[in-house]
Amino acid sequence: TKSFEKILIEVIILFMVIPRKINFTQMGRYGSHVEQTYRNAFGLKKSKCIDWLKLNVSLAKRFLGKQGRWAIAIDPSYISKAGKKTPHIGRFWSGCAQSVKHGLEIMGIGLIDIDTKDCMMLRAHQSLNNKELSLRNKTMVDFYISVIKRYRKELLKLSTLIVADAYFSTSTFVNGIKKEGFSLISRFRDNACLFYVYAGPRTGKRGRPKTKDGKIDMKNLDLTRMEKMEMKDIEGTAYTLIAYSKALRCKVRLVIWQMPNGK
User: Fold this and answer.
1) Are 86 and 126 in contact, with CB atoms under 8 Å apart?
2) Residue 210's closest CA among 222, 226, 225, 199?
3) Which residue did the predictor score with more confidence, 210 or 15?
4) pTM here?
5) Are 75 and 107 in contact, with CB atoms under 8 Å apart?
């Protein structure tokens, strides 16, 4: 509606000028409408409310320009919040504090342009707390998959690649997004068990064919099985190969980056 469009334009301006926390109370103080007007505008039913994902996708396309090497980035973020009445409040992992803390969590979905090294925010989806997930017989990973499934139609138009941190490098998540048409780019956990892929002749004997050919020792790499990668403006040396992941139970394209500090 036109009334919502006017409020939306004003809200975008308020986001840039309001100091500290941004909420409906603050909007009522600094804006030209009362607090309840903003609450009513953003409390509309889905059929009457603006599609934020489509809006942000159109803005991202205008900013990034011609479609190049794009990928979808996801990252759950902890938000500090006191009290017990806020919807979905609970205990979530805080990366900054490296511990579980009381508050809220949102799952951010962004669009990455690899060539320009830019990322545009597309959507923020609030996470359910552990109690709510247990009532639905779901884990947090299951919930993250359901979020991607919810927005898959629009996201697949942009890219089939999802970039996430090491938390998501599990078979549950990889197989879950694979069903929706996506592939994962991530970092393996430090204790990941990886194997060289057997490339020798088949014996012809009965039984399952041999797929693994020795565990990969990160401190003693077999460079004859890898291809050195060319990297610009990045320190260190990188190698790539097809490896077998025990956790994912499948072959993966593995990149090993040896940094100057020895890691």
Assistant:
1) no
2) 199
3) 15
4) 0.85
5) yes
